[in-house]
Amino acid sequence: MPTDTKTVTNAITDALNWRYAAKQFDPSKKISASDWQVLEEALRLTPSSFGMQPYKFVVVTDQKVKEELVAACWNQPQAAQCSHFVVFARNTDITVETVNQYVELIAKTRNVSVESLKPLHGMMSGFISGSTPEKLAEWAARQTYIALGNLMTVAATLNIDNCPMEGIVAADVDRILKLNEKGCSSVVACALGYRAADDKYAGLAKVRFSKDDLFINI
Ligand SMILES: Cc1cc2nc3c(=O)[nH]c(=O)nc-3n(C[C@H](O)[C@H](O)[C@H](O)COP(=O)(O)O)c2cc1C
Questions:
Q1: What is the pTM of this model?
Q2: What is the pLDDT of residue 10?
Q3: CB 192 within 8 Å of CB 162
Q4: Dist. CA 24 → ligand 1 center (Å)
Q5: What's the total number of domains in the chain?
Q6: Which residue is closest in CA terms to ligand 1's atom 26?
Q7: Where are the beta strands (DSSP E) in the chain?
Q8: Sign of dihedral through CA atoms 19, 150, 165, 158?
Q9: pLDDT in tens, 150-169
Q10: What is the mean pLDDT of residues 173-185?
């Protein structure tokens, strides 16, 4: 735990003010392997409903593929200019078998018996089998946004720029990245790298509602 909470809070607030949705990246600047490891861990450690992590993080660094993705991203140049383009994809093959495998992982990780996890298994499998495919797709998609938020915040603390992107045509991104055959489907994306020196959006003041408008304190 940090001992000086005030300093940490200020550093995080500074990072959150520093970040913005970058519209132009400097294509010559790449995220270092060590920074990328931190970002990967931020994604991996993201909490999710039941801890089921019903998603894949598809990381595109291949320049040709990034360029191909531009057309599938409403012609937004960030997809090609960035260092790493992350597609958040929801798993499409969520079944009771997924729950079985997850419960086995919990048992192994925490050194407990599968039998002792029966109530948890029952709750999760009840949720999965009681949900329509549409509800499961929406549930899984919602989880991906938590990872997106985590990624943007952690990137900002490392002075890595990013642009969250809902402006994608999921079917086209899926086709280019062959996601359907990988058991997943794209939801949202995030371009990461370093802002171009002439990105005029970098200097714009943040537009946010006031605390009074946003918070209801009870
Ligand atoms: C889920 C999500 C999807 C977004 N999609 C796009 C996008 O496709 N293209 C883009 O340029 N900005 C996109 N944005 C950026 C927002 O417009 C931006 O975050 C918002 O206006 C606040 O500005 P700031 O991030 O610069 O502080 C998206 C943001 C979020 C959170």
A1: 0.95
A2: 87
A3: yes
A4: 13
A5: 1
A6: 20
A7: 55-60, 84-91, 161-165, 184-193
A8: positive
A9: 999 999 999 999 999 999 99
A10: 98
